[in-house]
Automatic annotation (TrEMBL):
It comes from Hucho hucho (huchen). It comes from the Eukaryota. This is Insulin-induced gene protein. Belongs to the INSIG family. It is found in: Endoplasmic reticulum membrane.
Amino acid sequence: MQIAPALAAMADSTVVSDQQPPGSGQTTPSRGPYIAVVTNRNTNLVIRGFMLFSIGVFLALVLNLLQVQRNVTLFPPDVISSIFSSAWWVPPCCGTASAMIGLLYPCIDSRLGEPHKFKREWSSVMRCVAVFVGINHASAKVDFANNVQLSLTLAALSIGLWWTFDRSRSGFGLGVVIALLATLSTQLLVYNGVFQYTSPDFLYIRSWLPCIFFAGVITMGNIGRQLALYECKRMSGKTHQD
């Protein structure tokens, strides 16, 4: 019987081919987190960006629906599309911002030399998303005595979200800066008549809006960090295989 020696020879040749150095012309299949044949770092970056964009578009459609249904946000009738009663430009803008935030957070962590290691698992990320949706839901549907009480409550919830799921100085700093920039951009849009808020109490917008932006930044930052961590694990495993 020559079957056993033949199988042993095939196994030995497989081990030798797997141990070939990178420059020997031999290649071994890598196990990427998204597509098995994807080994290029830039390609994975594009995939992460697309995933973050898709998540941002979905959350924008769902959360903006809450605001429109409760008449918190008002769009002119001629710009409302049939998809979730949202203006056509809102989901792409939110998706683009989500992709930029999700890619920026792990980049800043790397630049600062402070890798984020607090609660790095997908279950924690999903809980963070659920809390963010709950905060947005509260801003639209929970009745408070006045806007000041609502704003203080949402501010406490947003900071609590950061403390529970992030706790990094870079995360807090980026959240505050991006929330301020987003608030300023919203002020300009409302000022130019693109849309409006009912009962504005902070210039042209609602005073609790920066809290929503801050919570959204922390949420997308956590998703981006988790996706980047998944890629780092793949790259580390590929290095060990080489």
